[in-house]
Amino acid sequence: MSSWFERQLSSRQVQLAATALVSGITVASLIYGGQAIRRRVAVEHLKASIPPLDEEHQAQRLTDFGAASPIPSAAREDERVTALARRAQRGDYDQELINEQLTRTASFLTPLRFQNLRDSFVIIVGLGGVGSHCTSALARSGVSYIRLIDFDQVTLSSLNRHAVATLEDVGTPKVQCVRKRLEAVVPWVQWECHNEVWREGQGERLLTGWDHGRGRKPDYVVDAIDNIDSKVELLKYCQGHSIRVVSSMGAGCKSDPTKIFVGDISATMEDPLSRTTRRKLKVLGVNEGIPVVYSTEKPGPGKAQLLPLPEEEFRKGHVSELSVLPDFRARILPVLGTMPAVFGYAVANFVILEIADYPHELGTGKGREKMYDTILSGLQGLEERLARDAGQDPIGLKIPVTKDDVRYIVEEVFRGKSVLSGLPTRLALTRWKAPKDGFQISQMWNGQKHAKMQLEELVCMTKEEAAIHEKKVLEGGQSPEVVYEADVVQLVERRRQEERQYQRYR
Question: 334 and which of 304, 391, 470, 480 could share a cystine (Cβ 3.0–4.6 Å)?
């Protein structure tokens, strides 16, 4: 047997066959190996070509059997609501259903007034806590055309006060969130959404008529912005273009809903946002005529305050970069979730009554006009006494101060209180210091005499304090720094410095 194997192995034919077999196996290995390498390269290339998952490229998880996952019921419900809203907005919705849904509002307003509301077009700028509740109330009450303007997205921390946002909406634009949620309630309402910042330069486009200016002009604009500069720009633009506007003042740090009022901006008090807004508007020539919702709740010990930034953030520098946008606040404003809702419904209620022409009253002032007249007369008398003491004839003397100036100095600069005691009653205006060159009367024009005086020279005191101040400082020649404590002198200087900042914008 072994000799047979030896003969076969020594056979040339067998050797050639074995060589061919080995060569074939080698070639096959090389071919399959090369193909495997090419397949790996192709797979890697294919994987690299797949874009990351985002809003533009979405994917669903496969089932255990490799099939596509069924569409979640929530997504199907959203599609159903959206489809119904599109039909309703085209007019394919039973009018009887709309009438039944709005029957209580219609019964309250009466048919003619209710029709005015149904035909109205309202623009809401700012969709945070106040704006979202206001929008919800207007849409549910019957307003048919609503334009939403807001640059921001829904955040987790805003869910404590937002009217309609859910966890699912976090990270989505507020304008789309509000529209999406309210379409499930009032599918027939027409919407226009602008996911952008309000800027004065865009006013003509953002506040134009419905359907890019082809439809009716806005019946009302709601200012629910919490940035002061943008708020002032919007209010000034609306008043300058005869567009009716109502503004919400600050709901942050407020906790008492019984202290919320609707009135003219000149009537507001105990509201820092109102005060700052008033002063900036006054610089632009707007003193009154803008209805606002505001709170008279006073700050006090134990109550919420604007939270300061951590000290380490200041040490890093560039604190302004922490805000969402340039010139927007970076610090945290504590908000009790119920208060923006109350503000929002108060704004919506005012807009509804205005559009429907329903009888209602709006506060027009603080009821202190008589006090301003008295203060002006007292200042006139003071200047005449100073002129007489200086040996000059005070007959016919005029002072370069108006009642509006008195109102501004008392209410805005000195917060309606005496700079000495903080008392808010029996107020008077007086010079803070005696003139360096003595009291002088200007007679540049024949027959016209007026006292040389700058508004920033005046301070607010009670009548009793002003009388003592006149004897010691204005007549006695003593310096206020000698007569008063350092904290009083510093307070006066702070108020004057603050006013100089506002004067820069005149």
Answer: 304
